Amino acid sequence: MKGVSAWFWKNLPYIIVVGLVVVWGVVCILAARLVWSSVASPSTAMLTATPRLPSTPTPSATPSTPLLNVRVEENTLTVVGTNWPANAIVQLWLRHPSISAEYFLGTVTTDEQGRFEWRGTHQSLMPSGEGITLIVLSGAVRQESTFDWRLPTPTPSVTPTPTIAGAFACSIYLASANVRAFPDGASPVLVVLMRGATVQAVGRLADTLWVHIEASDGTRGWVTADALNCPEPLSRLPVLVPPQETPTPTPTATATPTPTPTVIPTDAWRGEYFSNAGLLGVPALVRTDAELRFEWGTQAPAEGVPADNFSVRWMRRLHFAAGTYRFAVRVDDGARLWIDDNLVLDAWELGPSRTLTVDVTLTEGEHTLRLEYFEAAGEAVAILWWSPIPTSFDGWQGRYFAAPLPTGTPVLERDDTVIDFDWGNDAPAPVLPRDGWSARWERTLALPAPGYRFTVDVKGGVRLWVGNTLMLDEWHAADTTYTFDLATDGEPRRFIVEYYDAGGEAAIRVQWVLLSPTPTPTPTSTPTLTPTPTLTPTSSPTATPTASPTQSPTPSATPSPTASLTPSATPSPTPSVTPSPSPAATPPTATPTQTLVLTPVPTATP
């Protein structure tokens, strides 16, 4: 044992060196295997950089995590997805880092393994450059991938066009720019260009407020100078004199019907329907819509317009009285509301059917309303509604909400005289959903004593407060009637009624009646008076028969007494003047008991 110990201490340096070599070899083998696995699957390595994917995926989460593979080849974009829900519709969107709005690419359906592939070429209005974000949606599943899409510098569509010396290329700086037929804000819109679109600036007005441009599709028109981002000063452009009659491009002839709805300010809406989700180009259909109340479902809005990936612009001029109005929009997918060219509501994004509200104070007179709408895929809903916000209430202060709980900002607020409604399968207003909405009524009442019985007929759920006391709590689906009694003393109290539509038919009615005291003394006095007349009729019939038999033998003596006796026999009918009139003299209140007293009398006469 002593020799082994001596050998160990003698060779310890060699043992340490050998151990380090073994450890170093194991580390090199593991590192080589890690490098080989990353090289063997380059697509996975690229996807780990996507912000929405986990940096260190666990083996259990990897198979269920949707993956994206983005490839860019000059003008062509290819998107391949794996591990997505099987047989599902997938929506693809692009977003530029400096633009808040998204550009809708289209939809594709996954196969049974959850795989899809989409390929498309760059269009003139698509975002391009560095930091482009691809957004892919399928139901509640959402993934994003950021990439660079640098287009080739020479663009053949732009090069040949400058017919005027001094023209140069610019890009749209604003989120969107209207290209108009004349340098005037009321001029017809020829096309709408999104931020980043490349145009040719060919001229300007003398004050440089308007610039004449040519879009990549050949459309020429005027834009405001602040809508452009140009590499050279606009003052270098030649000064142009715009035509007074019709602009040079022929599209002006098609745009001339635009002012027609303005002549009839309250009759209808001018609807411009586009076969894309961005209000781009020339409308596929222009028509007059009586009201903005559309629930297309999965159908197309009109012939020539697709059921998905379309957009609409409605315009109308209306007269308003001075006051504050609540505007409500129910929409699926996105919408924007403009009043007098002021953006008052912006929901230009994907989303299910929902109701959005905004309060706007208007001066008396005519105001221009413009609603812009887009539909990506699935259900399509576009409804606009407005009503003045009352400042005082004579009846119930009614507030209506687009949710099952009456909280937040109401969609509709009005003065309801009574709570007595039967909506059936509809809702109180078009902007409210047919099912799943709620309402809240408030009012101060001073009810006199002694009390009232409240009755509530309801189809749905209901709650009722008196002051701070919850008198009725039936917040569930029901088709029934509830009652309760409330003691009152004439003092004012705050009454609150809440209701929600649980689906199906919707109805509620609240009413109350005074509780009157029961009159006890009146009925008891009548029975005591009626028994007294019954004793007189019974004694008079018994006396009459005894008198007439004793007098009948006497007439045989002399004929003269016969004459005296005949009148004495006739008095026997005197009982027919029986006490029957005396019960009739009882007070009118005793009429029911009078019939009961007279019925035994005829039975005693025989």
Describe the secondary-structure layout.
Layout: H1 2-40, H2 42-47, E1 67-73, E2 76-82, E3 89-95, E4 103-109, E5 116-121, E6 129-138, E7 141-149, E8 168-172, E9 176-180, E10 189-194, E11 198-204, E12 210-215, E13 220-224, E14 228-229, H3 251-255, H4 260-263, E15 269-274, E16 285-289, E17 293-297, E18 310-320, E19 323-332, E20 334-339, E21 342-347, E22 354-362, E23 365-375, E24 380-388, E25 396-401, E26 412-416, E27 420-424, E28 438-446, E29 451-459, E30 461-466, E31 469-474, E32 479-487, E33 492-500, E34 506-514, H5 521-529, H6 535-551, H7 560-569, H8 581-584, H9 591-598, H10 601-604
Antiparallel strand pairs: 1-2, 2-5, 3-4, 3-6, 6-7, 8-11, 8-14, 9-10, 11-12, 12-13, 15-16, 15-18, 17-24, 18-23, 19-22, 19-24, 20-21, 20-23, 25-26, 25-28, 27-34, 28-33, 29-32, 29-34, 30-31, 30-33
Biased composition (Low complexity): 525-569, 591-606
Keywords: Membrane, Transmembrane, Transmembrane helix
Region (Disordered): 519-606
User: How many strand segments?
Assistant: 34
Backbone structural class: alpha+beta
* Sheet with the most strands, sense and barrel status: 6 strands, antiparallel
Percentage of β-strand residues: 35-45%
Structure, described:
This protein has 606 residues and is of the alpha+beta class. It folds into four domains: 47-54 and 66-149, Interleukin-17 receptor A/B, fibronectin-III-like domain 2 (Immunoglobulin-like); 168-253, SH3 type barrels (Roll), CATH 2.30.30.40; 257-388, Sandwich (Jelly Rolls); 396-514, Galactose-binding domain-like (Jelly Rolls, Sandwich), CATH 2.60.120. The strands form eight sheets. It has a six-stranded antiparallel sheet with strand order 16-15-18-23-20-21. A six-stranded antiparallel sheet has the order 26-25-28-33-30-31, with no helix packed on it. A five-stranded antiparallel sheet has the order 13-12-11-8-14, with no helix packed on it. Strand 30 and strand 31 (469-474) form a beta hairpin. The protein starts with a helix and ends with a helix. The model is unreliable at 37-62, 154-163, 245-265 and 534-606 (pLDDT under 50).
